[in-house]
Here is the input.
Amino acid sequence: MTEQTPAPVGATTGSSAAPVLVVRDLRAHVAGQQVVEHVDLEVAATGVTALLGRNGVGKTSTIKAVMGLIGRSGTIELAGRDISALPTHRVAQLGVGYVPEDREVFSGLTVTENLRLAERKGGEHRYDLVYELFPELKERGQQAAGTLSGGQQQMVSLARALLNDNRVLLVDEPTKGLAPRLVQEVGRVLTRAAEVVPVLLVEQNLQVVRDLTSRVVVLTDGRSVHHGPAADFLDDPAATQRLLGVHGGTDPAGAV
Amino acid sequence: MSTALLLLITGIGLGAIYFLVASGLSLIYGLMGVLNFAHGVFLSLGAFLGYEVATRMGTSTWGGFAVSLLVGALAGAVFAALTERFLVQRLYERHIEQVLVTVGLALATVALFDGIWGTDPRFITGPGWMETTTRVAGANVPNDRFVAIIVAALVLLAIVLFLRRTRYGMIIRAGVENRSMVTALGIDVRNAFTLVFTIGGAAAGLGGVLASHYFGYVSPLLGQTLLIFAFIVTVIGGLGSLLGAAVASVVVAVLQQFANYYLWGTGDLAVVVLLAVVLLTRPSGLLGRK
Amino acid sequence: MRATLTRYALPVVLVVLLTGLPLLDLSLPGVLPGPTYTPGSLHLMALAMVMAALALSYHLLFGVAGLLSFGHALYFGFGAYALGILMRELELGLVPAALLVLAAGVALATLLGAVSLRVTGIPFAMVTLAFAQAGSVLVRRDPGRVTGGEEGLRLPTEHVPDWLVGVADTRNVYWLALAALVFTFAVVTWVQHSRAGHVAEAVRENELRVRVLGMRPFLVKLAIFVAASVIAVGMGMVHLILNSGAVPHAVSADLTISLLLMVVLGGVGSRWGAVLGAVVYVLLSQRLAVLAQSPAISDLPPVLRIPLSEPLFILGAIFVLVVLFLPGGLAGLGVRLRGARRTRGAQAPTPGSLVAEDETT
Here is the structure.
């Protein structure tokens, strides 16, 4: 009850530009079960906004609800346009890039095919950026994506989202299950990505959050309970302990 | 020896017809999660319209046969596309209702065919060569078997090329794996749904014309009978796997022929036993994923 | 108070009324072929009741446990054929033979159910269809000349008590069918309210959650499957006596599809819906066939005459329309009308989806 109430638009974004994605009173359900109760969040027009919370509080469901992959209600505004009633493919076409939790590359398709499938009509395809960030994908173009390592699959998944000119990227736990070296690599890619497109990032690794993000939104039991600058939140051991179950300030590895 | 060879080639010929039905069923199920009970009707419609065309153009002419194949495929494709657009798509993502709607459609259409063409089988003959046999290593193999095998092989090749070489083929392959991720990339999969129905319908319509020559007649129940074996084939082959459907078609049909000949007409029973064994040992089918 | 009254009083009145029908002289022109005491009408009503009981057993599978089976006719046909064959070949009386068939039915349903339930959703539908098809082929092929092939099997009347055979005794068979229906309704109600019934419904909604709670969905589904199958076996036996024989249609996928049609027509998940759907189906299919012969239809141009003279075309079309536009079936329609009248303008109960989201995706 002592948490900050949802901030008015633009107040805590630290940026003068209007947020690119505004979610108000989002509810979502899967197979008749409510998985998101009441989420308010904003993704700033630049940089990375983190979506935090313990396991099972509805972070992934929130992302899926924005994409329209699960049943949802509430308001979801993308650059001022309400997309909450649109089917998934329309949401994506309007410029929402999605990097799902378990990468979800098409394992029977080659790397090149995975990328070609992601090419959206109208608009450029930034193969130069993709191959600059992931030179390996060019070499492995003809390999079936299912035979790649977890880290490589994550690259394909990120590359699919970066290929198009998106308004915002929704990136769900990109470092999950990766070795420390690859976690750093993903961090580097996201930093570079955030230079071209704003990102909403779900991440358990608080060090990554600390390095990348300026703002956080924290969920508990399907509700957003905290909005604010990342540093303030991560430096408050009481808050991180209570909302995330970890000492954000003292544990640099930070993985739950 | 020559008997076994005859049974083998006849079995592969029957397998070719099973494949033409099962390929569409498997792709439709793999991409959309729909068990299409109306698939047999696509086949019957193809067979009947092919029969009508062939009798008008002369059943013994190659031209009549070729046009009947074309008309059969076209009829199946159009009927299938309409079914998807106007019935199945209205129930988007509600799989059980989608099955029910195809059940109702099958019921109504078979009754309609009964009314139009009667319940008695209509006998049909093809061009002279197809009615004769070719001697292969001592076995007299009816030539229509070879035609069925060649057409099915061409269809398999065409579908594989389509799936490998075109963007829509890529969308279908990706959609069979993970439909929701395809939509999350900004692709409207519903067009792909209509497309697989159309392709499946065309293959079934072709299968209808070939089946009418294989069995020598057309009847409203032809499609429904073949449909049940096609279901078994798709489960054994692995739902959603085109190659699995091809392999299982041949395995099932050959087993059926051999059991019918050597095990006192127990072909259909042997097929069901094979199904049970596959389910107990590999519930996802021979080439199925998961 | 009023709810209790309609809940218990109405069924009792209905059963009393149905029990008395053979003794009354009522006419329902257009619905029944003659007055209610005539054998023709009694036979039709008895048939409707047997099918209603069979539809109730299908409701257990599909409406309660969410199992879309295409092989339910196998058990119905098994009951009919096995009873006839046992009585004839072993010269058993009706009761011992019926008990044997029920026991065999339990074994058959357990075995096939255990195999089929290894898969769920649509694959389950395909597998049950395949098993039933094997049974259908077996009956038609007639190995050892026991089933009578396409001709069908004649009821060995010499082993059946006299009061159940003969046209004059149709009302006894009618009462037997009524008793079977009432008994089935009670059993289905009991199963639905039992622990297994609740778990089955929970499994239909969310199998994973039930598994997390430490229950075995497989065993519950198998129990429901066996219960539904055994009821079907029983109804097959009543049907054998009612029709003085059995034909291959009793084992066919067409029969299962008719059951599906009845349950969906009546309203998935509703016991009264299943009964209503079966009665409407049986009466429609009989009366539509009569209607097709009438000059009103036969004088029409072919474009209209051909579809209208095929009862199954009309039933199939009705079925498609119900699935598309009337998700709750007849029972849902009743609820919606009542709700609309009571609240007038307020929101009627949501039609919602026909059944819970299935688990295939």
About this structure: The longest helix of chain C spans residues 39-64. Chain C has one domain: 41-343.
